[in-house]
Structure formats: C-alpha cells, structure tokens
Amino acid sequence: MGDIRYGTPAGRGVLLAAVLGSGVAFLDGSIVNVALPRIGRDLSADFAALQWVLDAYLLTLGALVLVGGALGDLFGRRRVFVTGLVGFGLTSVGCGVAPTAGVLIAARAGQGVAAALLVPGSLALISAAYVEEDRSRAIGAWSGLAGVATAIGPFVGGYLVDTASWRWAFLINVPLIAVAVAVAVRHVPESHDPSYDGMPALERLDLPGATAAVAGLGLIVFPMIDRPRTGVAATLYVLGVLSLLGFVVIESRRRHPMLPLSLFRSRAFTVANLITFVVYGALGGALFLVAILLQTRLGYSALEAGMALLPITVALLLLSSRVGGLMVRTGPRPLLTAGPIVAGLGLALLTRTEPGASYLSSVLPGVLVFGLGMSLVVAPITSTALGAVSATRAGVASGVNNAVARVAGLVAVALLPLAAGLGGGADFTAGVHRALLIAAVLCAAGGLLALVGLPPLARPAAAPTAADTVAR
C-alpha cells in the first residue's frame, strides 16, 4: 500500500486532511439538531420541514455512501475526496444563505451527496497512504480527533445560533474545507484500486442500485412526513416498496453490487445489522425530538440544549474502548443484549422531561442511562458485523453497517413523530413522550434480537475505537 510514515510532515498532512474532511461532516451532523428550532422560526418552517432538513441529508448520504467509496477506489481516492470537500463547501454555503425552507432542504440533500464522498474517503486516504505498521496508529488518531469534532459540535452550534445566526452553523464549514483542500492537494498522494484497471466505470459503479435505493427510501419517507391524502400515501408506499424490491433484484444480478447480498448469508452479520437499524433509529429519532422539546417547551437556549445532551457523547468516548476490552472476554452477545435494554430505559426516563422540571431531576438521569446503554452497543455491534465476514470483506461490511445506521436515522425521524401522533395541533410534549416510549421499546427489541439471534460465541473483530462509532 502506502509508504508514508506516521509523524513525518507528509504523515501529518495526510492525517490533517482526513480529519478536517470527515470532521466537517461529523461537526455538521451534531450542529444541525440544536439549530432546528431557530431555523423553524426564521424560515417559518413547520415541523415537517424541520424533519426534511435532517432527512434530506440522511436520504442521500445513506443511499450513496457505498457508491462514494467505490468512486474513490475507481477514479482516485484523493480526487474523489477533494471533489467531496468542494461539494460540501458549496452546499454548505447554499444552506447558509437559503432564503426558504425548500432551498435549505435541497441544499441539505446536496450536502448528503458530498458527505457520501467524504465519509468513506477520509479513512480510505489513511489506509492507502501509510505504511502497514503505522496504519493502525494513524486510524486511531483520526478516529479520536473525529470524535472530538462530534463532541464539540453542540457547543459550537449552540454558541453560533445564540450569538450570531443559525446560518453560521453551516458557513463555518467553508474555512475548514478550504484548509482541507489545500492540505490534501499538497500532501495526500493519489491512489486507487488497481484491480479496477481496464474495467468500464459503469460496470463497477452501481448506479442502478443507487437510484433504486434513493427512490425507494424517498417514496416511503415522503408520505410519513408530508402526510398526503390516504390514497396518495398508499400509492407512494407501494411504489417505494416496489423500488426497494427492485433494488434487491438489481443487487442480486450485478457483478459488482454496492450491497453484496451474500454478506447476509451470515446469521451474525444479519442480526448485527438488524440491531443497528432499531437501536440507531431510536437514537436518531429520539435526539431529534428531545433537542426541539428542550428549546420550544422548556426554554433552553441552543447552547443549553446541546450541553444537556453532552453526557451521551462523553459516555461513548470514555466507555466504548473499555467495553471493547470487556467484549474480548465475554463475547458480544451479553453486551448487545444488555446495552439496548439499558438505552431503552434511558429513553423511558427522558419522558420526565416537561415544562417546569429541572435538568438534574428530568433530563440528566435519562441521558446518563441512555449513554451508558449505548456505550455497551457501539463497539460490539461494529465488531460483530466485521467479525461475521472474512477479513477481505471487512471494508464493505463496515460500509454496509454504517449505511444501515444512516438509513435507520432517516426512517426514524420520519416515522417516530407519525407513530406518536405529533402534528395536527396535538400536544407536543405529550407526543414527544409517546415517541420516546416507542423508541425505548425499539431499543429493548434490539436487545432481544441479540439474545435470540446472535450465536453464543459470535466472533468479534478487533474492537473499533470509541470515536469511530460516536461519529455516526
């Protein structure tokens, strides 16, 4: 692979480019939640529009992230990474100057496309550039620094929203991206997968599969959020299901599918991704609603709302690596059984969050218990998914598991409010409490899936670092 050593000027340059590239995507993801209430007020956006501000991004990112990794392998990892950086910068400007909610949603969809090039590309740069004996050290440094970007996101976003404008929550990406592009062009060597030499691009790139995935997910999510007439909604659901079935057919017939269905012959891999879907869906949907509840009903500022949820990130950063060590002794099944159930208990405790309640008595117990539960999940779930396949397929298995987590958030942000009866003049606090209870049940179901579905001695791969999973 590469010939760059860790700690050299070239090595520091590659690491800086990768950290800045992935960092802007992770930072943006953690900033937007706390900015949503102010966006709604300034753009006269209703609750459905705020859902789309999140889901437009998750839709394109979740459906295209596997294609983004293949693009780098085929056309050059640095080239695709820099293209993603430029695209993310331009769409961030589009978000920052958006005059209407519709323009903001369209720009967010563009951000998701660009992030699909950045998220897999940043780690691919490191894997390709460093000598083998330094690669793990570089990945560990990248993961830790990316986790810091995720952790400070609520602080940065809250401060910018409270002191300046929500628009700066997007525009702050631009100077970071400018530095990343300059460093990448100067220090990052170009690389690609030589096994694709001479192969037609259309044969390697699964554009039909990506198109079917975007169409299927979009057609299913749209009626959940916008709630058209019953007949129209039913038609869209049917078309969405047919598109996803078409996606499965396409993937089963392509020589190089973006989602190799053969991975799911492994029982442990299938169950790990089912657990990922329900638990990360509960996480994404619950945090979306709680961030809005704290600001619109409890009077928190954007900064205070971000800080209120910080114990979850702190727990993940402090405990995930220790849980990885514990997993070596116990195996993943006990942790993946207990973790989702504990996380569900934390979500249930958050139903005590209501106007007039203090942070210490209402919010803090729930976020602490939820963070503890998630710290038992994140490393084992990734390691189980990777350990269920051969080492040569670890990269695509990791990409699939990451994509499942993104799609889970996409569906949950659309589905939880619908299932809880939010909208249409319903009491918002009571609706959020119902949604939290539904999310708690989903988490508990993830624990039961692990107990029943995982083999007792499921083989974990090497445990990922804490920040590697925090960044999801």
How do the strands and helices of this protein lay out in sequence?
Layout: H1 9-42, H2 47-75, H3 77-96, H4 101-129, H5 132-163, H6 168-171, H7 173-187, H8 201-204, H9 207-226, H10 230-253, H11 267-296, H12 302-308, H13 310-330, H14 332-349, H15 359-375, H16 378-387, H17 394-419, H18 428-453, H19 466-470
What does this structure look like?
This protein is mainly alpha-helical and 472 residues long. Helices cover 79% and strands 0% of the residues. The protein contains 19 helices and no strands. The mean pLDDT is 89.
Q: What is the 3D form?
A: globular
Cα end-to-end separation: 27 Å
Helix and strand succession?
A: HHHHHHHHHHHHHHHHHHH
Q: Which structural class is indicated by helix and strand composition? A: mainly alpha
Question: What can be said about the biggest beta sheet?
Answer: none
Number of strands: 0
Number of helices: 19
How big is the Rg? 21 Å
Give the amount of beta strand, in percent: under 5%
Q: What share of residues is helical?
A: over 70%
Report the mean per-residue pLDDT as an integer: 89
- Low-pLDDT stretches are none
